[in-house]
Each structure stands twice: as C-alpha cells, then as structure tokens.
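Sat 14:20. Reprocessing the chain from the morning session after the first attempt stalled halfway. Input below, unchanged.
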Amino acid sequence: MEHRDVVSWNSMIGGLTKVGELREARKLFDEMPEKSIITWNTVLNGYVKAGEMEEAFQLFESMPQRNIVSWSTLVMGYSKAGDMDMARVLFDEMPVKTLVPWTIIISGYVEKGFTKEAIELYDRMERNGFKLDDGTVISILAACAESGSLAMGLKVHDSIERLKFRCSVAVCNTLVNMYAKCGSLDKALSVFNGMSKRDVVSWNVMLQGFAMHGHGREALCVFERMKKEGFKPDRVTFIGVLCACSHAGFIDEGIQCFYAMEKDYGIVPEIEHYGCMIDLLGRGERLKEAFMLVNTMPFEPNAVIWGTLLGACRLHGATELAEKVLDHFKLDRTDPGNYSMLANIFAAAGDWDGVATVRLQMKSVGVQKPSGASSVEIDNEVHEFTVFDRSHPNFDSIYGMVHRLAQDLKRVSHPKDATLPVEVGELVI
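Finished this time. Tokens:
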C-alpha cells in the first residue's frame, strides 16, 4: 500500500491479535506513526486474552489516554487470571463506570467463589441506579452456574422478579441452567414451565439438568414433551438423552435413541455421541459390545473414548479387556488420569507388579495426578478443600473434626457382621 491510514494499521494489528500473533502485532504497533485509542485497546485486549497480564499492565500504564474500554479490558483480564485484588483496585480507580465493568467484576467474584463480595457489589450497583440488561443478567447467572453459587443466583432472580424485568428466552434459559447446575432442579423446572416461549436450547438445558443429577426418567419425559410440542431434537439433545440413560442405567432406551438419531432425525452421530454410548454400555457391564462399537466407529477413537472404556474395565474388574484396550490405545503421557486409572485396574485385579510398573512410569515421565477438590457454600461463601490442604484459616478445627470422625468410625461395627470392626485409614480433606 502506498498510503496507509489509521484504519489500515488497526485492521492489520487487529487481525494479528485475533490469530494470536502478538509479537507481530506489537511490532506493527510500535512502527505505527499515529495511534488511536482503538489501536491501544486492540493490543491491550490481545495481551489480556493471551493471559499476559504483566505486558498488558505495562501497556495500560503507558497509554496517553484511557477510556471505559481500556479500564474494563484490564479489569476483565485480572478477573480471568484470578487476581481479584488487582481487579478490584483497578475497578475502584475507574473514573467513570458503566454497567459493563460492574458486570465484569461481579461475575469475576462469583466465578472465584467470593459470593459475599459479589452480593455486596451487586447491591451497590443497584443503589447507584444501574438497571439490569440481558448481558448483565446472563453473565452473572453463567458465573453462578460455573461456580455453583446458588445464593448469588437467587439474588439475581429476586431482582428480576422485583423489578419486573422482561426476560428474553436467552435469560430464562440461563436461569434454568443456573438452577440446574446448582442442584436446585425444582426451581429450574418451575422457571422452565413458566416460560411463555421456548427454543431448542430451553429443552436441552432442562433435559441436561435432569441428566447430570441422575434423574434419567425425568430427562426422558422432557425429551418426550419436547417432541410432542413440535420441537425437533438436535445433536446436543441426544448427548443429554444418552447421558441421562447412561447415568440412570437405561441401557436399552439409550441404544434405541442412538440408532434413532440418524434414522428418524437425520442427525449423524458424532464422536461425543459414541463416547456417551460407550459409557452407557460400559456402565451396564456390556464391555464386549462397547469394545466392538469402538472398533466400528467411522472415525479414529480419541483419548476420551479409550479412557471411557478403560474406566468401564476398572469398574467391572475386566483386566483382560483392559489389556486389549491398551494394545490399541497408546497411553497419553500427559494425562495423569490415564496412569491412575490403569494402576487402579491392576490393583483391583491384585496385580501389584502392574501397579508398581505404572507408578514407575509416572515418576519417569514426571506426571503427577492433581488432587481433587471439594467445595461447599456456607453463609454465602464458597470454601474449597483438597487433600492435605492447610490454606483454610480454620484448618485446625476442620482437621480436629475429621480426626474425631475417624475415631468414631473406627468404633462402628459393620451392620452385616457386628463382630468385625470397620478398619478406617487416615482421613484427609
């Protein structure tokens, strides 16, 4: 180009940041003779999306002028990075706040389990006269669904009803999803039944809510209602149906639905549907059928498919089939879950040499299985615990209670044989 204007430069820089070429974008940014606020915000957003917050902050500090987008982008970056202290400092320093930064900071607190702080800011936002819109409601409710923060979800729902907020289908869908993910299926169903309009997503969200909590019969009832009311199931619908059948043990119903996908609805099963079917057959101890299905799939099985089959082998102690699986499946050396599962299969079969071999392999490649975590919401605050975790401020009293429970359990006799005391090992949070 003989002549380039600001739009030309911004278009090129924006394109490079979108595909993750931050170095090239920064090089052009530094060469650009005159930069607009859009130029600065584009590169800032690129750093934030890449998680490079140190570079983002340095760029933010050097900006000749900042607008609401600049401030909001940086607050969002620190929120996504989990640094809520820094996000809050920037939020408090913002010279002008619109609904967007309020939504970002509240959603950030909710996602990280800081429900008290989120509710406090939400109340202040309402006192300052900001009115809810679809974007704010959907963002906060989605964060509640992700973190399991029912208290915050109830707070938003209360505002919706109190302010007579006109809910779109998308907002209602997010509300149903939030209640379902937080385990409040009665409220999810109440919102769903009260919707004047529904789309396919509405049905899918309600169906999956029942499925994830093991209510297979209710999920299938929603599926039947969906068809009767004239809605055509899509690929997501069948993932929910197959998961529901798998968790509830409805083997025959699941098989029937799987083969009806293409025959009755023209939906070609994808790898996610095959994964659900293999899980379904594996849980039902029909391992040979599951293995045959894997071998007849129209595409190459991935690590999730093989891992699902390995998990079924572990569940039913099928060591021989597990070895056949391993003959076909090259173990993913980056996934500690595969090693752990394989070691458990050998342990269940009493093959301690096999267990030792897997443990040595884990050590040799430097793989360590991350600890699982449990969380509980008490007084609008989410507390998370992991094995041997001592970061909680009340860990002394928590471990004291765990020790007391362990001692009590040691004195309890098995109901089927009162003469044999239950042996309880060391319990940890």
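Residues 378-428 form one domain.
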